[in-house]
Write a structure and sequence with these properties.
Helix content: 55-70%
Mean pLDDT: 79
Number of domains: 3
Strand content: 15-25%
Radius of gyration: 46 Å
Order of helices and strands: HHHEHHHEEHHEHEHEHEHEEEEEHE
Oligomer: single chain
Shape: elongated
Low-confidence stretches: 1-12, 352-356, 358-362
Distance between the termini: 27 Å
Number of helices: 13
Largest sheet: 5 strands, parallel
Structural class: alpha/beta
């Protein structure tokens, strides 16, 4: 395995390998996270009381909105009035209701615009169906009354101001007329002053009539649909929240499993090892004892690989904590029954001190077959690669076997 192949080997996981390492290996951790989060949320909802929601519909004196943002602004106006602490406290006092005004205003009163219309829905939620309806109707009436009083107060103030100005002009006209009676010779000058005051009076009277007409023709805030006591409780959120908790627990479990995998020694699956060494997976050895046909097929495949590589001695190199002795015994026994024309032994680095090209005094050409677990530690693979590189023997293939004690 070259330096480039080692970099490739340590550069990530395949999808199947990631699933095995993160999900299957840490299934208990993931399941525990899912159970803890979902159970915790369920216990939080265990003592929930049934809640009832009652809705009233109303319109303000704003006219029909032309776009969605205007509908939202109307709903915001209703919400600002209905959730005001003074209005909520007055409602509870008038209805004789004992509730937390802050909780009622922030969590139990909901205001929504109905589409892009000017109609607004005001909903109150309470554990008592009659209280929910009574509060919804009281607050709806209160919003309408507040808007009407504000509008009327503004119109009255403007009208009163115009009336005061008209009275002042009338007083000026009376003063001009009185002076004309006393000094007829200054009539020309007084006539011009009187004409100016009369013109101002006409303008003010027209403006007053316009204000009164606009106030009379303006849309009126009103309650369109009063709330009725709901017959059934709202759908509990237990199932929804538990489902969300299940998903959150799954995500949490996967994150924890991924973190553990990132902190643990890196493992590489058999496909990654085979690609890194550019060799095929010759076979898979699992306990209990493999069948005779399986052993003979593996022996035949090793012989074919040896012929292709021009070697007559296959050396099994265990990678990491892998038991290769049992596999070697089965292969040797099969070779005795049916000679394959190839020698098989385990990799022994001590042979380098003598003559690794000889077997029982005869010249041989050796090749290496890696024996590794289905998932091997990267550091063990790097050591095996260094060993093979020093031996200068070709790597013929890969056999996966169970780790010791597996």
């Amino acid at each position: 395995m070259t330096t480039h192949e080692r970099v490739w080997l340590s550069g990530g996981m395949e999808l199947g390998q990631a699933f095995r390492r993160i999900v299957l290996r840490h299934a208990a951790l993931i399941l525990t996270a899912v159970l803890l989060t979902s159970t915790g949320v369920y216990l939080l909802h265990r003592h929930d009381v049934p809640l009832y929601s009652a809705s009233a519909r109303l319109v303000l004196d704003t006219g029909d909105p032309r776009q969605g943002s205007e509908s939202v602004a109307i709903a915001d106006t209703v919400r600002a009035i209905a959730t005001g602490q003074t209005h909520v406290s007055d409602a509870m006092k008038s209805l004789g209701i004992d509730r937390d005004p802050v909780d009622l205003a922030t969590r139990k009163i909901k205001v929504d615009a109905l589409g892009t219309s000017g109609v607004v829905s005001l909903t109150v939620t309470d554990r008592d169906a009659r209280v929910a309806a009574a509060l919804a109707n009281y607050l709806a009436d209160d919003v309408v009354a507040t808007r009407r009083s504000l509008d009327q107060a503004a119109a009255d103030e403007q009208s009163a101001e115009l009336a005061r100005r008209i009275d002042a002009v009338n007083a000026g006209l009376a003063d001009v007329d009185a002076r004309y009676q006393q000094l007829p010779q200054s009539g020309y000058w007084l006539a011009g002053q009187r004409a100016s005051l009369a013109s101002e009076k006409v303008a003010l009277e027209q403006e007053l009539a316009s204000v009164r007409g606009a106030s009379a023709g303006r849309p009126v805030a009103a309650v369109l649909d009063r709330a009725a006591s709901p017959a059934h409780a709202d759908t509990p959120r237990t199932l929804i929240d538990v489902t969300i908790a299940l998903l959150a627990g799954l995500v949490l479990g996967l994150l924890l499993a991924s973190l553990l995998e990132a902190l643990s020694p890196r493992l590489v699956g058999e496909e990654g090892v085979a690609r890194a060494f550019a060799v095929p997976v010759v076979g898979r050895y699992r306990r209990p004892a493999p069948g005779r046909a399986q052993v003979h097929r593996l022996l035949s495949d090793l012989r074919m690989l040896g012929i292709q590589a021009g070697v007559d001695h296959v050396r099994l190199l265990p990678v990491g904590q892998v038991d290769a002795s049992g596999l070697l015994g089965y292969l040797k026994a099969a070779a005795k029954r049916k000679p394959a024309g190839i020698h098989i032994s385990t990799f022994d680095s001590s042979l380098w001190a003598t003559d690794p090209t000889r077997l029982n005094g005869e010249l041989t050409k050796s090749g290496v077959v890696l024996v590794t677990a289905p998932e091997a530690e990267e550091r063990a693979l790097v050591r095996a690669a260094d060993t093979v590189q020093m031996s200068r023997w070709p790597v013929l293939g890969l056999i996966t076997a169970e780790a010791k004690g597996g």
